[in-house]
Amino acid sequence: MSTHAPPTVLVFSMSDPTGAGGAAADTLTCAAMGCHAACVITALSVQDSTRMDDVLVIDDEWVDDQARTVLQDMPVAAVKVGALGSSDNAQAVAEILSDYPELPVVFDPFPAARGTASESDDALDAELMAALRGLILPQTTVVTLSLAQARRWIALSSDDDAEGEAAEDFTSTQCARQILEWGCEYVLLTNAGTAGTYLVNQLYGPANSLQNESIEHVGLRFRGAGDTLSAGIAALLAQGIDISDAVREANEFLAQALAGGFRIGMGDATPDRLFWANDDGSEDEEQGPPDAAAPDADGAAPRG
Hints:
Layout: E1 8-15, H1 22-32, E2 36-47, E3 52-57, H2 60-71, E4 78-81, H3 87-99, E5 105-107, H4 119-136, E6 142-146, H5 147-157, H6 161-167, H7 172-181, E7 186-195, E8 198-204, E9 210-216, H8 225-238, H9 243-259
Parallel strand pairs: 1-2, 1-4, 4-5, 5-6, 6-7
Antiparallel strand pairs: 2-3, 7-8, 8-9
């Protein structure tokens, strides 16, 4: 038995039975990046590759018990917070994070869609996003979300209808500054722009710092791309890599996972997080997992 244990990432995530997103995506990504994922399930979903039909939110006491049992048993090097289905869950996770302030936290904030859109859904989203903004975000190292999601979050946070509508046209810089004011250290906005055939991602940080990455556009609609990016960053932070290099390398990993993506069902495609293990039939090159050294620049993906 090996005496070497990989770093552990504590993941708060929903269960996706397709394996494309959620806990399965986080587990595969962490493993491919050289880490062990300990998964706390926050919700159970009924979905296929085309749509989500229903979500069962796990009780906040169960979320708390899952996480604390792991934290009391094994050393955790980083945390990824994914989909949370209720403000009670947000409160539970926030209390856990406050008890372990030394751990880097990657936050992928948007709740899972409920399959339909209605005014009641908007009200529920606004309540949950307010809890995430006030409880989780101030304890976050880097929050990852698309420009469209950032605009939506800012609009939901506004009490003024005119200001909420104006947020839908915010630039990436305006969105990042607003979210940074809410208390996180860094904001990674994916799909923040285009440059030819490339999508541009932007990492905003302290003192107006800006890091641009890009990824070649893949002509498929993906499920689990955002999970892959955020879990990859968490795995690299768990290994002690600084935020700039962690974002750059996670983007490179995502770019290759999307380039090798596959459609196994009738709907969205799935990133191939084990692209490095595939046998391409060549005897001259030996496949292996991605190196933890800083890679070439790249970017994010269509759908999380």
